[in-house]
Amino acid sequence: MFGAVTIKDIAKALGLSTSTVSRALNGSYEIGAETKKLVQEYAEKVHYRPNPIALSLKDQKSHSIGVVVAELANNFFSQAINGIESIAYSSDYHVIITQTHESHEREIANVEHLMSRHVDGLLVSVASGSTDLKHFQSLRDRGFPIVFFDRVVDDIEAHKVVTNNFKGAFDATELLINNGFKRIAHIAMASNLAISRERLNGYKAALEKHGLPFDAEYVKHCLHGGRAINEVEEAIAELMALAEKPDAVFSGSDRITIGCFGTFKKMGLTVPNDVAMVGFTDSDVTELFDPPLTVIRQPAFQIGQMATEMLIKQIRSKYPVTEFVTETLSTELIERGSAKNTAKP
């Protein structure tokens, strides 16, 4: 049998009607157990696969979900997408991935493209350049399924999956304080992102707990989240030009963390002798740095899985979803050489 096997081919081979074969493949109670077994075993033998276009025409579903992230090169997002795909494909959904590169305009274009592909729902981590989120609000107003993850939107009612950014930042800052560092700078992503505000608040809370003053000069924001290496270099140059240079840096994202380490090396600063460092990152290669980086790790794979499970459940719901939840997962502090105080006895 050449080409894709159809229901008509199976019906002809078994001497059954196409409707009987269709109901047998769908497990209908109207079809006897023996007939079901006959049809299903033969379908498996000839490698029958349902036609996705025909299925989408039948139930008005494309059986695909769209993903909007900043960039695939970011370790957090690459791991989150692995989690997304692990759930989506096992649930018979295809995944269409788009990147915003932190651009508001590209985010809108990506959403429009995904909607033109008739995706059944969206998984979104908003771009740092997006402050006007009407493109998402208009979809939610129509009841379109959206789940936000990591970079979520406070003002839009939807399911959300996040990590405990406050606690992660608090733990990072407190570790540096406990190791004897007093002048701790924080290099953050764009200030309009909720995760930036939460991590900044965690940083401030740790300083306050230990009686250290908050100095706004020690906080630098990178609009592009470290994608533009010059913004990380400029932030560090400004910090190191202060009369009271920071003796440690807490960085707020994967890209910024990697960028900081490279910039320190370029400036001839040694970690942790000249400046200690702790940063948010999900990259495994940080363990191979010299010295190995102390990091706050997010459960990116699990975040992707959970967000996808929530989206598919919403897509398959027979009734409009009106109650939404925010799931918060814990971060993990992994202490390595970059946060050690070499001057501390």
From TrEMBL:
Pfam families: LacI (PF00356), Peripla_BP_1 (PF00532). Coiled coil: none annotated. Residues 5-59 form the HTH lacI-type domain. Keywords: DNA-binding, Transcription, Transcription regulation. The keyword Isomerase does not apply. Residues 6-49 form the HTH cro/C1-type domain. GO terms for molecular function: DNA-binding transcription factor activity; transcription cis-regulatory region binding. It comes from the Bacteria. This is LacI family DNA-binding transcriptional regulator. It comes from Mucilaginibacter myungsuensis.
